[in-house]
Predict the 3D structure of the following.
Amino acid sequence: MAIPASVLHPPFNIVRLSHIVLTVTDLQASRAFYVDTLGLQVTSEDDRRIYLRALEERGHHCIVLEKGDAGIANEMGFKVFEEDDLDRAKAHFNKRGLAADWVDVTHQGRTLRTRDPQGIPLEFYARMDRLPAIHQKYALYKGVKPLRIDHFNCFSPDVRASVEFYNSIGFRMTEYTDTEDGSELWAAWMHRKGGVHDIAFTNGFGPRLHHVAFWVPTPLNIIDLLDVMATTGYVGNIERGPGRHGVSNAFFLYIRDPDGHRIEIYCSDYQTVDPDLEPIRWDLKDPQRQTLWGAPAPRSWFEEGRVFRGVEPSMSKLKSTPIVAP
Ligand SMILES: [Fe+2]
């Protein structure tokens, strides 16, 4: 079955992914992980929330840690080009039968919240509080030296349906994995900002958040982080890698935060801005799609994820089994 053609003139203009709100059970434990270990910068905090940005970012937050009873995922945020895009987005979602409401969000201008057809909570805004540049304040570079949020990855019970929705609002596919007979999509990587992806979907019990990724300067920053985590009580939080992906060609490491939220540390994928870029197909049975060097991903990587607030996951419709480690 053919993959859908890109929508080159979408109903509204999304610039890039922006931020996510993660519920955590212990703000101080999360602060030790995200700030003291990874090196994200605190932009504001109180006894309910910690707002963080990475070192290249001018917007107020790329991740919000919010205190709660269990580690769940909340809104995935996207920046649109201008205010009018928000009105066009609302009209588009309503036309599709999706509720879309204006909400007040601290440090953000007019913000539109909706859910995708599978229930993933989304929010869109045009303007966020802007902060002074710190990318040349090298004294602030700590931990893995995170530069910017790079992408979201979600389990989807129906990847083709996810691709259809995000395709319709302008996300363009860069790479995908097919089932053996080519009849169904197992996974898809889709972008707005000109990298391999702003968002990706993998077949599985979902929707659930699989991971959030941060871009770092070099693979050596990832090696340094591993040395630090291995000697500061975080060895059990190292889940997969380091390695080089087949899909995306990026260097990667997967780690888990104190509540089990999976964070990917990521660098060096490639430019994808051409509107006629041909998506790259991977075979589900090819172990090099996961890791170019051949090492399979652990079972936890295929099975564990975090639920989104207010949505009950369902079983995936595909039955194929990926290659996993014993
Ligand atoms: Fe990723």
The pocket of fe (ii) ion is lined by residues 151, 153, 211, 213, 264 (CB under 6 Å). The chain has a mean pLDDT of 95. The first helix runs from residue 27 to 37. Residues 163 and 188 are 7 Å apart (CA to CA).
